[in-house]
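Late entry, flavin-adenine dinucleotide complex.
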Amino acid sequence: MKAIVVGGGIGGLAAAVSLRRVGWEVVVHERAAAFGEIGAGVGVMPNALRALSWMGLEDEVRRLGTPRVSGGVRASDGRWLVHLPDVGQQKIIAMHRADLHGVLLRALPPEILFNDSEVTSVEELDADLVVAADGIGSRLRAELLPGAPGPVYAGATAWRGVAPGPYDLPITQTLGPGGEAGVLPLGDGRVCWYVARVAPAAADLDPVALFAGWHDPIPELVASTPDVIRHDIHHLPPLPTFVSGRVALLGDAAHAMVPYLGQGACMALEDAVTLAVVDGDLARYDALRRSRAQAVWRGSRIAGRLGIELTSPVALALRNFAFRALPPSVAVRGMTRFASWEVPTAGGR
Ligand SMILES: Cc1cc2nc3c(=O)[nH]c(=O)nc-3n(C[C@H](O)[C@H](O)[C@H](O)COP(=O)(O)OP(=O)(O)OC[C@H]3O[C@@H](n4cnc5c(N)ncnc54)[C@H](O)[C@@H]3O)c2cc1C
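Prediction complete; structure with ligand written out below:
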């Protein structure tokens, strides 16, 4: 059985690795001049680590990443809202996105990877299975589901980067009025960070000025990073299906979500393994993936409403009070509620 994967991001490469593990012949087409990944950090959540383990890549991910066990949620003045000195079993592996992409890339033989190879229509592809892993702006999705809504602006813009450090910090998310920040320390002293702000699309904003009053070391992380990437945050309203004929939509092409739970790339890894486990049964892929990914999509949306989108001082005070009142075990359950996913079994659900 032959599969063609369109898109060589984390989702497309993970699909190629997974399908090859169950015996499919696979090629990957990537429109960019080279296979690569920009961006800053990615937190490999326990659910994503299970997917990577199924692909045979857990050791390599653990070698290149750093397990983070302590952290929590802070207010913009630095007060802890939830402080988790040890989140126990629910370890997050902090990695640079390029390292995760590289682990997947090295697991594939170069002769199946075609760069500078843009796919313009499903019609041009001769395969038993086509994997549309062509990202949030998916051309294949627009062709196959012409009535489905496209990406919409989610009301906030984000900047990301890797500060050279060295720092020794816990993993944290900071919630402030109309903005949020995330800090994901790598094991070598560098720190991946993002800051996001409610704003009109393409607004002319300077993150150094916007986050200057936030707690240490956020202003310094932003100001000391040489290459800062900016993204206006878009998401994709839930689709009625993830499959059409012999095509499976995967990753952001199927369910691009706001980044406030840090699960977007993790969902693409889950999709990839599930697609291989169902071994061409796309109705089952749709049944297994659509409810799960759309639940995480909604959870991310709610995290945004209770986080970055809150601006009223009363609502902020209530939210912060509620966070501080939570017993740590309840807070851990809430923050990791999507991390308990297990690889589905062949034939079962
Ligand atoms: C600010 C921000 C922070 C984030 N933080 C996290 C995080 O901490 N953890 C997490 O899990 N997720 C995070 N995400 C989400 C994550 O980045 C995405 O969910 C993930 O990268 C999606 O991977 P993908 O392979 O589906 O799509 P993409 O990475 O977009 O890859 C699509 C690929 O397809 C190629 N392509 C497109 N069209 C064609 C075509 N017609 N022919 C051939 N090739 C084509 C593109 O060049 C690209 O390489 C974040 C996102 C944002 C915006």
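The longest helix spans residues 282-306. Will revisit in the morning.
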